[in-house]
Amino acid sequence: MMKDVLLQTDMPDIRFLRKGKVRDIYEVDNNLLLVASDRISAFDVVLPNGIPGKGRVLTQISLYWFRQMEDIIKNHIIATEVRDYPAICHKYADQLDGRSMLVKRAKPISVECIVRGYLSGSGWKEYKNSGTVCNMKLADGFVESSKLPEPIFTPSTKADEGHDINISFEEMVHIVGKEIGERLRDVSLQVYTRARDLAEKKGIIIADTKFEFGMFNDELILIDEVLTPDSSRFWSATTYQPGKGQDSYDKQIVRDYLLTLDWKQTYPGPELPDNIVKKTIARYKEIYEIITG
Q1: Residue range(s) defining the domain that contains residue 147
Q2: pLDDT digits (tens, 9 = 90+) for 228-268
Q3: What is the DSSP letter of 154?
Q4: Do 140 and 154 share a domain, yes or no?
Q5: Same domain, residue pair 46 and 127
Q6: What CATH number should be reported for the domain holding residue 54?
Q7: Is 183 helix (H, G, I), strand (E, B) or coil?
Q8: Cα Rg of the chain, angstroms
Q9: From the centroid of its chain, how far is CA 12?
């Protein structure tokens, strides 16, 4: 087992709220403290060993993108340095440093906002079967990993357990209302377009990504993580070739390894060998360095 991996935070005198697949969420002075652990999930199963430093990489990439988007939409960040957190947090600096954010307690919007610039994943599967993505008709002739003429907004439900389900824009409006629905779509496309253009200058294609939003003081803000390898598909522009799946800067290494095993993709997941762990963190660090410079 590799050292220096944070699988579970332990801060007994701070109020613990909930544990996600990767993040542990605490309450501090009516704000939220989000801590990105080094846990890794695949096929909706959290694996027994983590990826050392992954939580720090995810947090720092998110912070970079939050800053790039501040003029498009406000976000939930209050502080990112432990010294600026309430005093109760300071003794846990070893668990919090570089991997945590003190954030506003927004009310999350109950849909995932997905933007696709390229045909991949579930979008490609649906297009192959029906010529549509999230029931939107697309032109004929696209292949796997094709660049779309314009980015498309394809929301999904937000599932606590299991898989999210793609829904149409009209179905989303039924859930959140017309005004919020249109704002979610417009802002998601704006943020994706800016990120895509910034990344392209660094030789990176952002194939697709998902955003989460919340309401704070009656205002829509960007929350959770943004444009990380856990929420986006990053491809190298130099090796990009339409007509097949692309090599991604994410946990694809882990998924590919797991597919070689006789494992039914249910709990408990198998332990990852050290060589897979090392390759995976190297991939995360590589995209962090390329994007943030």
Answers
A1: 107-236
A2: 999 999 999 999 999 999 999 988 899 999 999 999 999 99
A3: -
A4: yes
A5: no
A6: 3.30.200.20
A7: helix
A8: 19
A9: 28
Q: How many CB atoms lie within 10 A of CB 81?
A: 12
- For 236, the 3-state DSSP assignment is strand
CATH number of the structural domain spanning residue 194: 3.30.470.20
How would residue 50 be classed by pLDDT, with cut points 50, 70 and 90?
very high
Instruction: List Cα–Cα distances, 22 to 8, 50, 90, 114, in angstroms.
Output: 9, 10, 22, 20
User: Between helices 178-200 and 169-176, what is the axis angle to 10°?
Assistant: 120
Q: Is the pLDDT of residue 159 over 60?
A: yes
Question: Given a cut of 80, is residue 95 above it in pLDDT?
Answer: yes
Same domain, 231 and 129: yes
The predicted structure's pLDDT at residue 44: 87
pLDDT value at residue 160:
65
CB neighbour burial string for 44-53, b if at least 16 within 10 angstroms, e if fewer: ebbbebbbbb
pTM value is 0.93
Mean pLDDT of 106-120: 96
| Positions of E strands within 154-241 | 156-157, 204-216, 219-223, 232-236
